[in-house]
C-alpha cells in the first residue's frame, strides 16, 4: 500500500508507505521575463470546501490591521484564479466588506497562461477546509515562485514541507495572523524560499516514479520468493519512504 501523504496513511492504512505526488515540472516553473509585482493569489475551484470565503474574511482583517498601523503604506491585493458555483457569493462577500479595490477575480486559467500568471505573485493562499489528500496546487505555485500559506487540512502540510507556512484550518484569525506575520518578517520569507528548491526536487516526476518503482520491485520480489517457498518468514516494507 502507498499513501500520498501522512494524513492519508494515518486515516486509511497506517502500515502503508508514503510517497508524495509529483507535479508537472515542465509546465510550472519560474519565468524570468514576468515581473513579480502582485501579492497574494488563490488558485482552485470556487466551492465551499476550498475555504475561499474564509480567506476573503481573513484578508479583510489584514487590510483593516494594516490601515490601523500603516495608513500611508500600499495595501496588498488578493487575486482569485478559478471558477465555480460559489463565485457569485464570493464576489458579493467582497463587495459587502468594501474591499473590491483589493480583491480581484480573473476566472479560469490553464497551461502556460496559468504558469505565467502565478509567476506574478509572492504568496499563495491554500485555505482548504477538508478533503485535500495532498495538494498539487501547492507545488505548482511554489514552482512558479509563490510562497505557500496553507491550512493544516489533511495532506496540505506534506505538500508544503518546510518551504511554506501552515495555519489552523477554518480559522479566520489564524490565517490573518499568518499573513501579517510573513509580511513583516523578511528573514522568515527568505528562509522558506531557500527551502523550496530541495522540496520541489523531491517531487519531480522522475524522482517520484523511481520511488514507486523501488516499492513495486520490492513487492514483486517478495511475492516471487514467497511463492517458491524459499523463505519461511517475510519482511515488511518500511512504514514511510
TrEMBL record:
Domain (Glycosyl transferase family): residue spans on this chain: 36-196
Pfam families, per the entry: Glycos_transf_1 (PF00534)
Source organism superkingdom: Bacteria
Name of the molecule in the record: Glycosyltransferase
Organism of provenance: Hymenobacter volaticus
